[in-house]
């Protein structure tokens, strides 16, 4: 059984006591830091957490064969968790980025057959092997940025054959790569060209033909929809998310991304685990989310890349919404794998403090994909997913912005990046 001791961390960020439910309000700023911290790992699990002196004393007679990592001058965090990505797709859309810089809007491009439709065509044409190959490149990038778990949505098929191919590719890459991949079905990501003008019929197809197959083959844990003006209405979204629940799929929702559309309210009403984006969420919607404990997944890279006003992260935290951070990694609105840069942006554009950004990208992100009991904090019994940062204290992670401070990544107790 592999054994590993990390010692002398300048700051060991444990986030102790957060496994049961996501952190809210002031709790989000309390990182439970151990100075000169140490972690002892055995068989992929965290066995002990304490100061270096305490752990060296505890294990003094059994350090033979233990791999030791010296984290002097560094910060140790729980492995970062990305709870919202569109990991599996083919191709890229830098041409649209260029069009947007020349004045076109995201929705104009999509309504003219580009955007999600462009990636859908490329993804339909790709083989499962090609999707695996392209997704593994992205997973490597995530890992190099200290990310040890990602959620991955389907939604670039918009027909069963391709949705199935994407979901299988997501499972395949999760098995091939150190990063754990958690799947979400997002058959209702856009109205496909074949159903243009008839979104209701497409929603019926997703409900009747796709959901049962997703459930039968256990291809996903979550069910997501793009609830947006010109895409799917709140009524269509409610219908799909309620239908998914009957198949054991937990609702998630792309809510109030481009225009206010009562997506946050709907998330609270259907009991979604998270509502994501929320750039234009209403005050009432934010209150309802806080009331029902719906996690607000902030995607600061999307606002940044679409060059629009960011979601009101500060207000959400102050209102009691448990907040998480994610890349939204996708070829149109956020082609990045850098969770640390998202944390920088959350501080600079959404009003989070550096401690809240860490909570949002670790334990709250884990809760947003129903993994709060297994990952997201450094506590005895949890999976040994850790990242060591080459900074003296956690604030420097945000202060020296736009850089990758990842020094070492440990996944399931194994050093996978150093
Ligand atoms: O989360 N809004 C919908 N879906 C993605 C963008 C997908 C794309 O442009 O390819 C998002 O922003
Ligand atoms: Fe998204």
Briefly, what is this?
With 418 residues, the protein is of the alpha/beta class.
Unreliable parts = none
Class inferred from helices and paired strands = alpha/beta
Major β-sheet annotation: 8 strands, mixed
Helix content: 25-40%
Total strands: the figure is 16
List ligands, each type once: N-(iminomethyl)-L-glutamic acid, fe (iii) ion
User: What would the average pLDDT be, to the nearest integer?
Assistant: 98
Q: Tell me the distance between the termini.
A: 21 Å
Number of helices: 16
Rough shape? globular
Beta-strand fraction estimate = 15-25%
Features:
single chain, about 425 residues, alpha/beta, 8-stranded mixed beta sheet, 8-stranded parallel beta sheet, 16 strands, about 20% strand, binds N-(iminomethyl)-L-glutamic acid, binds fe (iii) ion, HutI, metal-binding, imidazolonepropionase activity, histidine metabolism
């Amino acid at each position: 059984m592999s054994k590993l001791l990390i010692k002398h961390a300048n700051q060991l960020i444990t986030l102790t006591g957060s496994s049961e439910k996501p952190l809210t309000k002031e709790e989000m700023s309390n990182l439970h830091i151990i100075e000169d911290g140490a972690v002892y790992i055995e068989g992929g699990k965290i066995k002990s957490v304490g100061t270096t002196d305490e752990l060296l004393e505890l294990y003094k007679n059994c350090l033979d064969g233990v791999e030791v990592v010296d984290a002097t001058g560094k910060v140790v965090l729980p492995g970062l968790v990305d709870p919202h990505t569109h990991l599996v797709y083919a191709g890229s859309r830098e041409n649209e980025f260029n069009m947007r810089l020349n004045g076109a809007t995201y929705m104009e491009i999509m309504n003219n057959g580009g955007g999600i439709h462009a990636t859908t065509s490329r993804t339909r044409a790709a083989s499962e092997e090609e999707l695996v190959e392209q997704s593994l490149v992205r997973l490597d990038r995530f890992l190099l940025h200290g990310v040890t778990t990602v959620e991955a949505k389907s939604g670039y098929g918009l027909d069963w054959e391709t949705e199935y191919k994407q979901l299988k590719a997501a499972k395949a890459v999760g098995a091939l790569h150190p990063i754990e991949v958690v799947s979400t079905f997002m058959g209702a990501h856009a109205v496909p060209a074949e159903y243009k003008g008839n979104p209701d019929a497409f929603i019926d197809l997703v409900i009747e033909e796709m959901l049962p197959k997703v459930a039968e083959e256990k291809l996903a844990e979550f069910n997501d929809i793009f609830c947006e003006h010109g895409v799917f209405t709140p009524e269509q979204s409610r219908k799909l998310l309620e239908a998914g629940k009957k198949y054991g799929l937990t609702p998630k929702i792309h809510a109030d991304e481009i225009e206010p559309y009562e997506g946050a309210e709907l998330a609270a009403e259907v009991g979604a685990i998270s509502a994501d984006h929320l750039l234009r969420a209403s005050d009432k919607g934010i209150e309802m989310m806080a009331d029902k404990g719906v996690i607000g997944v902030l995607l600061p890279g999307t606002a940044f890349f679409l060059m629009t006003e960011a979601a009101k992260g500060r207000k959400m935290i102050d209102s009691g919404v448990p907040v998480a951070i994610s890349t939204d990694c996708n070829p149109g609105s956020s082609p990045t794998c850098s969770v640390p840069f998202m944390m920088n942006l959350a501080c600079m554009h959404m009003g989070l403090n550096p401690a809240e950004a860490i909570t949002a990208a670790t334990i709250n992100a884990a809760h947003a994909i129903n993994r709060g009991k297994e990952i997201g904090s450094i506590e005895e019994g949890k999976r040994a997913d850790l990242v060591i940062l080459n900074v003296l204290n956690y604030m420097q992670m945000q202060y020296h912005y736009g850089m990758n401070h990842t020094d070492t990544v440990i996944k399931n107790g194994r050093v996978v990046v150093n």
